[in-house]
Write a structure and sequence with these properties.
Distance between the termini of chain A: 51 Å
Pfam family, one (chain B): COX2_TM
Radius of gyration of chain A: 24 Å
CATH topology of chain A: Cytochrome C Oxidase, Chain A
GO molecular function, one term (chain B): iron ion binding
Shape of chain A: globular
CATH class of chain A: Mainly Alpha
CATH architecture of chain C: Up-down Bundle
Strand order of the largest sheet of chain A: 1-5-4
Family (chain B): Belongs to the cytochrome c oxidase subunit 2 family.
Strand content of chain C: under 5%
Largest sheet of chain C: none
Number of helices of chain A: 15
Chains: A mainly alpha (578), B alpha+beta (362), C mainly alpha (392)
Distance between the termini of chain C: 36 Å
Oligomer: heterotrimer
Cofactor (chain B): Cu cation
CATH topology of chain C: Four Helix Bundle (Hemerythrin (Met), subunit A)
EC number (chain B): 7.1.1.9
């Protein structure tokens, strides 16, 4: 049925399509116009290309690892190479892919547009953080080419101070990437604080911005601690400063404290933006107001703050005092509550909605399924007694892959499919997209569900070879990884094909109410000519489906001519700025 | 109900078993806690999944249809689903902490074993100068392990006991457990057959194949659970739980020291296998982490500092006690010091054994 | 740091319809100068928070190791020259004053004064580095280095064959000074007024480093006799008193034959009285250790193992143990010095802009932000000074 244009007395608002001169992709040409661009959208796109390449590399390493583990004695590598491969898989995925994926790639593109601003607060800082990312990546590649890296991505001392691989190169790379991350976070905090247009109050911000804001807080507060930790590690290796190295009376457990003080909050750097994306997708594709906006917004901030207090749960078996261990366990449970709240809120949003099972929605549903498993298995690990058994086994591996891959990666893909028409102005093949979501879901579960059992049965992680009784489950896991890989490849092909033969995307293909759907697809380089009118970002009352042109449009109630009035001498927003 | 469902699967010898054997007092507590948490998790998971897919199917509508409701919040409901799960969380925390405290309070008068972890092996110290890589315990006897590491962080993990603790260099960590299930001894014929086969092949004992130790005991696996470098995945040993104290004492006595009648070479060979030398040094010329023993004695050694030495008794002794002093060219200084862990007689035996492997020895 | 500064590029997309006037200093994506200033200021504050957290890692390390080994920290901090530290504190405080004053001058558009004040701030920073160079080179000569390289020997505190560290530190600064001087002369000759105006204060700034060196040398030599005599006095005292027991302990020690670590003693001795109670403990610990090592006692069955650890080498003195203090000292002051260097870089940029008269009532953000940064660097020193030099 056609709901479009049947509201009497309404005026249809649709920005139409951008001209070539307006389109941010085409308004200036040449490689240099990209490399030196200060436009947040182009920087976002460059990040997107960068992180995709990093992900491809990390993913291939993962496939190689799984392939190696087909046989109890290993099929591909020597122990030494296996150790290097899993280290690089971890380090690349964490530092080069997951941390910058949603905040830097999608965030850069979306934050100013969702906010109704023209750009981020510091465009040059933004570009420099992208180049820092490139430098960091180069350092990693150099470490790989020099003598590899076999410490695990955690760089635990004293192993990292004694191994003869390129630890210094890799830690410097991670240090530089840390600065890239800090600058991105700083930029977003300032942008969201100072560049909201009139009418965009804190509680009218889309939840993706809340999530990004919470993420940025963590990036700014936690990353410097990683920076100093890695510097001290480099000093330990070069000068033997005796802080972390027991040979010089240092304490390795101190290193773990320092490291996890950053790296636990970093887990929330990875997952919080995913929450933001899912909140957007669920609401838009259910065409229903998000349920419990404030609870979701507050829970993001709560997670960001509580996330700083739970790092000790990575060290339950390391030999901390019993009291410390118990306190960390208690704190760990508190951080699970806000995540649970979000899941229930998303379900309530779907309840009595009008759900379109589009590709992004399929990914979002898959996210809720996988993240719930990831979250619930966290309970086994947070409970002290069971953690003594499960710590450093495949149970942990499965748990954090459910959160990081089933959570963040799936949300990233969902977000990418959701905003792809906005970013590149093309629609992709919907069936292909749904098929990729199905393959990813299937392959992922087949890869990691067996690993929970492996862990319960006592298979330690980071093992290049294993006892024969674990072989069946490992084989199942490897087959799953292949399906997962194919699913991701399908997703990539669907997206790339859309660039070539995709239909032109309308400004609002899904019926979203946040500001980015108010500008053309792709947006003009200046985003908005003048500050847009800001309403409730989840109010879908005035969004109508236009069957004829296959697009959603905003229908404004008819305006009556207001009695003429003397305009105020000052701009309306002048008094808002102190 | 749920534990029962799990135990249907729990034929522990099979590939699809959910848990390894339950062989200590902790394992029962940990398993039941695990099942309980899993039960709660499954309960909530089912609710979420039914709602998720139910809503996705039920409220799926054609494009342009409006949602039936635009309710944006319901504070009571939201508070309810924030608070109710929290109650379960408190329960998990309390039970988890309670069992954990049990794990950390060692009973008085426990049987004590010292543990030394190194790259990549274990040395269990049974007192009176008896060292062995296997961990031998007495059933129903609380056992305390005092652990130290000579190089990097390791972690001692016995899945059957549900017990794990990191071994951190620069500090002593301890753990305890009480085995409840003794490991059987295999029949003498079976043992003899396996021993013969191993000798014929001239290979090392294959624990995975025989599933019992060279002394004929069934065992539980003991893993290193903290990544420690190249051969991390080979840093395994076995736990044997004896039925009687006499049996355990007899076993310890067997390995306590060189008997009067035993020659230096043959005892040295035992030490070579038992004290972790074989993890890095081959006896047949194979290239491993450390130099091979074959034809080592009496040979000219190039050192990393450019000097040359002849591998005589003094050089070998120094290399065992102070391995980082003179590094053979082409190798990494990764060997831990055996100072204080080998008696003079042990060192003499090892040197005699190395001598016996060399064509250069007079 | 300059990247934190508000974007001052002229509008690259000048053709889209702004309905209000954009001054040259206002970036295109901001609506008003106030918005730009607020953004920059917030950005700077957030950056300072990250800086504080960056240093907090080292403060934590300091706290942990001070708690673990208070005697090492007490003993070692006597090697730091309080007078030099105090002078540096004063210099930095004064530079903060001139910096704050410079912000005011930028707001009131007094360009001459602004340039002078920034130059003064810069000179203070250089003096600070000069004094620091004296402190560092002196310690390096004595082998007071991080744990891995620590080679201090109380009997011969000054290594005869040590390179002249001071000279090497001074070299780059001397080159910079000569460079600016030559550049200044050539710009005067060419008659480039703008360059001359920039380089005059900069030459003075570069020279200030040597003022710092001079100041440090004078104070150091004035202080030397006193602080050193106490140090060597007590060391000798202990050594002569406990010679025999030391030999006994060395003979007993399984460590002694290993790596030539015969020169224990060092700093911790300074804290120990002339009574030989410390050495008795040491001997006891050594005995326990060698017993444990030779296998006569495998485990201490009488008590908990933790007790064994406490009884064993808590105060077993090795240079590496003393080195921890200097590790932390060099890490903290070194990274602080790097921040000073970064500050110098940004201040030079400000100086050039102030000569160019870029700032005005509406646009003084950069001076303000750099000022904030400078105060933070200053503040960190205010904490470092008592923690490292004063608390004993």
């Amino acid at each position: 049925m056609s709901a479009g244009l049947n509201i009497p007395g309404g005026t249809v608002r649709d920005p139409g399509f951008p001209t070539e001169r307006e389109n941010y992709l085409t308004n200036s040409k040449g490689v240099l116009s990209w490399l030196f661009t200060l436009d947040h959208k182009r920087i976002g796109v460059m990040y997107l290309i960068g992180v995709t390449m990093a992900f491809a590399l990390g993913g291939l390493l993962a496939l190689a690892l799984r392939w190696h583990l087909l046989d109890p004695d290993g099929t591909l590598f020597t122990n030494n190479i296996y150790n290097q491969v899993f280290t690089l898989h971890g380090a690349i995925m964490v530092f080069l892919f997951i941390i910058p994926s949603i905040p830097a790639a999608l965030g850069n593109f979306l934050v100013p547009i969702m906010l109704g601003a023209k750009d981020v607060a510091f465009p040059r800082l933004n570009l420099s953080s992208f180049y820092l990312w490139i430098f960091g990546a180069i350092f990693f590649v150099m470490a790989l080419c020099a003598s590899g890296l076999d410490t695990g991505w955690t760089f635990y001392t004293p192993y990292s101070t004694t191994t003869d691989t390129s630890v210094i190169m890799a830690t410097l790379g991670a240090f530089i990437l840390g600065f890239s991350s800090i600058f991105t976070g700083l930029n977003f905090i300032v942008t969201i604080n100072t560049m909201r247009p009139p009418g965009m109050t804190w509680f009218r911000m889309p939840l993706f911005l809340w999530a990004t804001y919470a993420t940025s807080i963590i990036q700014v507060l936690a990353t410097p601690v990683l920076g100093i930790t890695l510097l001290l590690l480099v000093a330990e290796r070069t000068m033997h400063i005796g802080i972390f190295d027991p040979e010089y009376n240092g304490d390795p457990v101190t290193y773990q404290h320092f490291f996890w003080f950053y790296s636990h909050p970093a887990v929330y750097i990875m997952i919080l933006p995913a929450f933001g994306i899912i909140s957007e997708i669920i609401s838009v594709h259910s065409h229903k107001h998000i349920f419990g906006y404030r609870f979701i917004a507050y829970s993001s901030i709560a997670i960001a703050l509580l996330g700083f207090l739970v790092w000790g749960h990575h060290m339950f078996t390391a030999g901390m005092s019993d009291m410390t261990t118990i306190i960390f366990s208690a704190l760990t449970f508190t951080v699970s509550v806000p995540s649970a709240i979000k899941v229930f809120n998303w379900l309530a949003t779907m309840y009595k909605g009008s759900i379109s099972l589009t590709t992004p929605m399929c990914y979002a549903i898959s996210f809720i399924f996988l993240f719930t498993i990831g979250g619930l298995t966290g309970l086994h690990l947070g409970t002290l007694a069971t953690d003594q058994h499960l710590h450093d086994t495949y149970f942990v591996v499965a748990h954090f892959h459910y959160v990081m891959v089933g959570g963040t990666l799936v949300a990233f893909l969902g977000g990418l499919f959701h905003w792809w028409p906005k970013m590149f102005g093309r629609m992709y093949n919907e069936n292909g997209g749904r098929f990729s979501a199905f393959l990813v879901f299937l392959g992922f579960n087949l890869t990691f569900l067996p690993q929970f059992i492996l862990g319960s049965r006592g298979m330690p992680r980071r093992y290049a070879t294993y006892d024969p009784e674990f072989a069946t489950l490992h084989t199942a896991s490897t087959h799953g990884a292949l399906i997962l890989g194919i699913g991701l490849l399908v997703a990539l092909i669907v997206l790339l094909m859309s660039l070539v033969r995709g239909k032109k995307a309308s400004a609002n293909p899904w019926g979203g109410a946040t500001l980015e759907w108010n500008c053309t697809s792709p947006p003009p380089f200046y985003n908005f000519e003048r500050a847009p009118a800001v309403g409730d970002p989840y109010d879908f009352h005035s969004i109508e489906w236009d069957e004829e042109n296959e697009r959603y449009v905003t229908v404004d109630p008819e305006r009556k001519i207001a009695p003429e009035e003397e305009p105020t001498t000052e701009p309306a927003h002048a008094d808002k700025k102190h | 109900m749920l534990p029962a469902a799990f135990s249907l699967l729990a034929d522990y010898t099979e590939d699809y078993a959910w848990f390894p054997d339950s062989a200590s007092t902790f394992s029962e507590e940990v398993d039941s806690l695990y099942y309980w948490i899993t039960g709660i998790a499954v309960f909530f998971f089912v609710i979420v999944i039914v709602a998720l897919f139910g809503f996705a199917v039920k409220y799926r509508k054609a494009k342009g249809m409006k949602a039936e409701s635009q309710v944006s919040h319901n504070t009571k409901l939201e508070l309810a689903w924030s608070v109710i799960p929290s109650i379960f969380l408190v329960g998990m925390f309390i039970f988890g902490a309670k069992v954990y405290l049990d794990m950390r309070s060692v009973p008085e008068g426990s049987y004590e074993v010292g543990v030394q972890a190194f790259k990549w092996g274990w040395t269990m110290d049974y007192g009176r100068g008896t060292y062995h890589p296997e961990l031998h315990l007495l059933v129903n006897e609380p056992t305390k392990l005092t652990m130290r590491s000579s190089d990097v962080i390791h972690s001692l993990y016995v899945p059957a006991f549900r017990a794990k603790k990191d071994v951190v260099p620069g500090r002593y960590n301890y753990m305890w457990f009480q085995p409840t299930l003794a490991t059987e001894k295999v029949s003498d014929e079976e043992l003899a057959a396996a021993t013969k086969e191993t000798e014929e092949n001239g290979s090392e004992w294959d624990f995975d194949k025989y599933q019992f130790t060279p002394d004929g005991y069934r065992f539980y696996d003991l893993y290193c659970a903290e990544y420690c470098g190249e051969n991390h995945s080979q840093m395994q040993t076995v736990v044997v739980v004896h039925k009687t104290r006499e049996d355990l004492d007899a076993w310890i006595k067997k390995y306590s020291s060189r008997s009067e009648t035993e020659s230096l070479e043959s005892y040295g060979e035992k030490l070579y296998a038992r004290r972790g030398c074989s993890g890095c040094h081959s006896a047949d010329g194979k290239q491993m982490t450390g130099p091979t023993y074959k034809n080592l004695f009496g040979a000219q050694r190039a050192l990393t500092n450019g000097a040359n030495v002849i591998a005589d008794e003094n050089y070998l002794r120094e290399s065992i006690l102070y391995p980082k002093e003179k590094i053979a060219a082409g190798y990494q200084p990764v060997m831990p010091s055996y100072k204080g862990q080998l008696s003079d007689d042990d060192i003499d035996s090892l040197i005699a054994y190395i001598k016996s492997l060399s064509a250069n020895a007079q | 740091m300059s990247t934190n500064d508000a974007d001052t590029a002229t509008d690259p997309h000048g053709d889209h319809g702004h309905d209000h006037e954009h001054p040259a200093f206002l970036a295109h994506h901001f609506d008003t100068p106030e918005q730009q200033y607020d953004s920059g200021k917030l950005g700077m504050w957030v950056f300072l928070v990250t800086e504080v957290l960056f240093f907090s890692g080292m403060f934590c390390a300091y706290a942990i190791f001070r708690m673990l080994r208070p005697e090492v920290f007490e003993g070692c901090s006597q090697f730091l020259n309080t007078t030099l530290g105090a002078i540096n504190t004063g210099v930095l405080l004064f530079s903060s004053l001139t910096m704050a004053w410079a912000v005011r001058c930028a707001q009131t558009e007094e360009y001459k004064k602004l340039t002078t004040l920034i130059a003064t701030t810069l000179s203070c920073a250089m003096i600070f580095l000069g004094v620091k160079a004296i402190e560092y080179s002196h310690k390096w000569e004595m082998g007071l280095l991080p744990a891995g390289m620590f080679s201090y020997d109380p009997a011969h505190p000054h290594h005869a064959d040590a390179p002249n560290y001071l000279l090497w530190i001074c070299l780059p600064f001397a080159l910079i000074f000569l460079g600016t001087l030559i550049w200044l002369i050539s710009s005067i000759v060419k008659g480039n007024k703008f360059q001359t105006a920039c380089l005059k204060p900069l030459t003075i700034v570069a020279f200030s480093f040597f003022i710092g060196i001079g100041l440090g040398t004078i104070l150091e030599s004035g202080n030397k006799g006193e602080s050193h005599s106490t140090a060597s006095d007590s060391t000798e005292h202990i050594e002569s008193a406990d010679h025999s027991s030391e030999i006994a302990s060395v003979g007993h020690s399984p460590e002694s034959s290993q790596g030539g670590h015969t020169e224990y003693g060092v700093m911790e001795r300074l804290a120990v009285d002339a009574t030989n109670s410390g050495l008795k403990n040491e001997l006891k610990a050594l005995d326990a250790q060698s017993e444990l090592a030779t296998g006569t006692v495998v485990l201490d069955h009488s008590t908990d193992v933790d007790a064994t650890i406490k009884r064993a080498p808590r105060d077993f003195l090795t240079p590496s143990r003393a080195g921890v203090f200097f590790s932390i000292y060099y890490c903290m002051t070194g990274i602080h010095a790097i921040h000073i260097l970064a500050g110098i870089g940004v201040l030079v940029w400000l100086l050039v802009r102030s000569v160019r008269q870029d700032f005005n009532r509406q646009y003084f953000g950069p001076v303000d932000y750099v000022g904030l940064y400078w105060h933070l660097v200053d503040l960190i020193w205010i904490y470092l000074f008592p923690l490292l030099y004063l608390i004993r």
